[in-house]
Specification:
The protein is mostly helical. The chain is built from eleven helices and no strands. Helices cover 76% and strands 0% of the residues.
């Protein structure tokens, strides 16, 4: 009973910290569009959030890199929420993965310029390891949402192949001025098709499809 109570306290603490970080992020992103991924933007966000002095530090004690990591997680959670509303169970595996990449990009749409600034920040040499980790985690969540929970070599193969698809599609989207980003979605379809043309991969794709569990159960696990 005591352990359950302690776990509940820890869960509430984590939930409260996530809420604080989300609030600070949402208040800061409009400023990032003008000031970049900087302390200036974060301090302006703190003032707008009206959470009291020191809220920025409480939310992101490690500064802008901390906020960058949380921003990626924030957009991932928005993606998973959007995917929960789709009929993934009746989609082919290719369609699920495509839907995941699209949902992740669309999650950034309300903050497109701030997201572009985030990518520029992550492209700095000192942040490349962080950028790779965050993009890998996004690809991992997309695959889990698609119903894949592989733990063998296929785990790395699938995520490794999706990694450049996701990252290049995100970059393409930022240069895309087409109505409804139709050019981006066409580019995404072509990149997914290219992956499936890799010798032997399409066969492994089809073989693994029959072993995929219900995607909604896994969505809950990664949310």
């Amino acid at each position: 009973m005591a352990k359950a109570s302690k776990d509940s306290v820890h869960e509430r603490a984590r939930s409260g910290q996530t809420e604080l970080r989300d609030t600070m992020l949402e208040a800061t992103l409009p400023h990032v569009a003008f000031d970049g991924w900087t302390e200036t933007a974060l301090q302006a966000g703190e003032a707008d959030a009206n959470l009291g002095e020191g809220a920025a530090y409480r939310a992101f004690p490690d500064g802008m890199a901390d906020m960058a990591a949380h921003a990626s997680d924030y957009f991932d959670r928005k993606m998973l929420g959007a995917l929960e509303k789709q009929d993934l169970a009746n989609m082919k595996i290719r369609e699920r993965v495509t839907a995941g990449v699209r949902a992740r990009i669309e999650a950034c749409a309300p903050y497109k310029e701030a997201h572009r600034r985030l990518l520029a920040y992550l492209a700095l040499p000192t942040h490349k390891a962080l950028a790779a980790r965050l993009a890998w985690e996004t690809c991992n969540r997309i695959w889990y949402a698609a119903g894949d929970d592989a733990t063998d070599f296929n785990y790395y193969t699938k995520r490794g192949l999706l990694f450049p698809v996701y990252t290049t599609t995100a970059l393409y989207w930022h240069a895309d001025n087409s109505e409804g980003s139709v050019d981006t979605w066409g580019y995404l379809d072509r990149r997914i098709s290219d992956v499936l043309k890799i010798p032997g991969y399409q066969a492994r794709f089809k073989k693994s499809l029959g072993r995929l569990p219900n995607p909604f159960r896994i969505l809950k696990r990664t949310a």
